[in-house]
């Protein structure tokens, strides 16, 4: 089910007795829990009716027992059981002895005065498990995956409105290009820009370009993203922005080669049936860059990736041996990139 349904229902004062919120977008999950808490609980009795349990350390039966307790001086009790890895194929880091029968029994007859939320920051659930099937049949399962493109730009615009400012589509896209889809960082950037333009102000592309904090790795991934969509003009714009920030063309070339190699490796491993976690483990890379690389890999053929990597390796050699000017080499790379992708 769509996680947006939670916000719509809760806004109307409609609460499910149980929720399972899972996925890699931890920020959205935390935001959803906070939204439910603020709408369901009376702030003056918050300490009595709100509990959070870490399933790495505390057994599920203890959280269930809390959920079975009537609220104190309020209509609802909210119990959050986070890191519910027993619903996935992943292993817990702690030593909690979970008696899952207690949760199974609770799901059959949940307490209507309680809201029980299970959270797990994993991409997939173990669909074979009885608990997962129970939760799905109850309509309690909501995935939270990273936002992309129009979905992300809409989120940025809504966040700007919450801060009393506006941001148009091109500026939201520019912010996405520079910062990426890290929602926590995007919030921080929007806070800074909202303060700069003031209440009722407009965040423009000029404001974004002037104020947005960026990392070189993010710019390189943004550059590759534009190139993969054959938006060569935007790719070159990112490159020239890097030059303005005093980045060396040879450093950009080296990072491009490294990221294209990662995309190729991910593409090859995905074709062999590797999961994202298995690829990350095999390559010795954090799962997030692997996920980004997997998204890019779908837009390139294996032959195109090998052509690009070979070209960059040749240019690296030519620059270092004095056969080619480094700035001219990079400009020629972008001019030839479309042919290398489409050939």
Summarize the structure.
By secondary structure, the chain is α/β, with parallel strands linked by helices.
Proportion of beta-strand residues: 5-15%
* Oligomer designation: single chain
Distance between the termini: 41 Å
Model regions low in confidence, pLDDT < 50 over at least 5 residues: none
Topology pattern, helix = H, strand = E:
HEHHEHEHEHEHEHHEHHHHHHHH
Main β-sheet, spatial strand arrangement? 2-3-4-1-5
Largest sheet: 5 strands, parallel
Output mean pLDDT.
89
* Shape, principal axes of CA atoms: globular
The number of helices is 17
Structural class comes to: alpha/beta
Overall number of strands: 7
- The radius of gyration over CA amounts to 24 Å
What percent of residues adopt helix (DSSP H or I)? 55-70%
Topology:
Blueprint lengths: L3 H8 L6 E5 L3 H15 L5 H4 E5 L5 H8 L9 E6 L17 H9 L5 E7 L9 H8 L3 E3 L5 H14 L3 E2 L1 H11 L3 H15 L4 E2 L1 H7 L4 H13 L3 H13 L4 H23 L4 H8 L3 H11 L4 H19 L5 H17 L1
Parallel strand pairs: 1-4, 1-5, 2-3, 3-4, 6-7
What does this entry look like structurally?
The protein is built from 17 helices and 7 strands. The protein has helices spanning 4-11, 26-40, 46-49, 60-67, 100-108, 130-137, 149-162, 169-179, 183-197, 205-211, 216-228, 232-244, 249-271, 276-283, 287-297, 302-320, 326-342; strands at 18-22, 50-54, 77-82, 114-120, 141-143, 166-167, 202-203. It has a 5-stranded parallel beta sheet, sandwiched between helices. A two-stranded parallel ribbon has the order 6-7. α14 (276-283) packs across α15. The longest helix has 23 residues, at 249-271. The model has no long low-confidence stretch (mean pLDDT 89).
């Amino acid at each position: 089910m769509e996680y947006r349904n939670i916000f719509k229902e809760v806004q109307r004062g409609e609460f499910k007795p149980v929720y399972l919120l899972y996925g890699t977008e931890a920020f959205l999950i935390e935001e959803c829990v906070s939204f439910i808490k603020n709408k369901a609980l009376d702030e003056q009795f918050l300490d009595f009716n709100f509990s959070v349990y870490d399933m790495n350390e505390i057994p599920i039966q203890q959280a269930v027992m809390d959920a079975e307790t009537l609220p104190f001086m309020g209509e609802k009790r909210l119990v959050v059981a986070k890191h519910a890895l027993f619903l996935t194929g992943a292993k817990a880091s702690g030593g909690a002895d979970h008696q899952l029968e207690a949760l199974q029994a609770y799901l059959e007859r949940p307490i209507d005065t309680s809201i029980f939320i299970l959270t797990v920051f994993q991409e997939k659930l173990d669909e074979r498990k009885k608990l997962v099937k129970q939760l799905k049949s109850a309509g309690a399962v909501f995935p939270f995956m990273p936002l992309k493109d129009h979905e992300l730009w809409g989120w940025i615009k809504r966040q700007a409105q919450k801060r009393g400012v506006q941001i148009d589509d091109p500026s939201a896209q520019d912010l996405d290009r520079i910062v990426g889809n890290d929602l926590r960082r995007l919030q921080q950037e929007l806070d800074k820009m909202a303060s700069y333009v003031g209440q009722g102000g407009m965040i423009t592309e000029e404001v974004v370009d002037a104020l947005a904090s960026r990392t070189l790795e993010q710019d390189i991934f943004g550059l590759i993203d534009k190139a993969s969509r054959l938006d060569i003009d935007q790719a070159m714009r990112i490159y020239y922005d890097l030059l303005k920030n005093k980045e060396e063309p040879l450093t950009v070339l080296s990072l491009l080669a490294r990221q294209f190699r990662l995309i190729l490796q991910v593409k090859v491993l995905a074709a062999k049936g590797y999961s994202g976690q298995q690829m990350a483990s095999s390559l010795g890379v954090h799962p997030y860059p692997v996920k980004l690389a997997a998204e890019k890999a779908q837009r390139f053929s294996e032959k195109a990736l090998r052509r690009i990597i070979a070209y960059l390796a040749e240019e690296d050699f030519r620059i270092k041996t004095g056969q080619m000017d480094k700035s001219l080499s990079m400009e020629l790379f972008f001019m030839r990139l479309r042919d290398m992708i489409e050939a």
